[in-house]
Amino acid sequence: MSHMTYPEAMVVGFIQGVTELFPVSSLGHNVLIPALVGGSWAKNLNVAAPESPYLAYIVGLHVATAIGLMVYFWRDWLRIIGAWFTSLWRREVATTDQKLAWMIVWATVPVGIAGLLFEHEFRVLFGKPVLAAIFLVANGLILFAGERFRTRRSRDADLEVERQRASEGLERHRAEHGSPGARHAAGQVATRTEEIAVALAADERLTRMSYLQAILIGSAQVLALLAGISRDGVTMVGGMFRGLSREDAARFAFLLATPVIFAAGALKIGDLIQYGHGIYGQVLAGSVLSGVGAYLSVRYLVRYFRTRTLTPFAIYCVIFGLFSIIYLQLR
Asked: What is residue 191's predicted lDDT score, i.e. its pLDDT?
């Protein structure tokens, strides 16, 4: 670990931030790319080595990734956390925000338990380049199947979201074509509040689910302990299988990912401090890029999944995974 260079740390940091949110597996990429590059990269950045300091580094980067997520969703988390404390204080679940808060809590329990018990063993045993490539192909097939075999409920949910947005668009059109003063004010308000309104509407739809459905969707995150399987990808597929629209499945996946990613990183901070002597500058540089990459990624993907599918990511995972298998076997 003492030989980790700034380019290595910065590339790994940015890849972590971007691929943690894109449904293509951050750990899979951080296992495969050093192996594909070879040389000092393969030597210094080996996640499968016992007590790997590189493992501590990339999992520690999760803190920066989670911060990037929380910066983007800060209004949502203020509402959700505040509602959770209010729910505890009043011993009730009476509002949308209160139910959503408890759905996130219960849906996080399965992966939290699995992570505490098996995270290190899974990453050491399965965090090998060829296995990561195989699981990346499997991830692509899961994403493809999630789109190809979507339930009627999920497709109907897409139509409901479209109708709701079209109705809101009509009201905005009427407001913006009123008096000049009204047009100016409405334009400013629309710019500031559009994403907030979209989020609130999505939360209303999400809380129609039962707690059991939320737990089942959240349980899909356990698969992400395998390098090559995307946390957000399998969670989205799980959400669509349970009848969520693609957009709502993506939002729920991002909300569920935030506490899990933050906790995973926080648990490795001690190891990072222990093994990171002499590379704190590299750690800082990688963390900054990880946080920036996460923020930019989630900002893009929230809009992307309003109208587009998981299929391009599925194709990418299969192609990159197969290429990696062939290259690693022939090299």
From this structure: 47
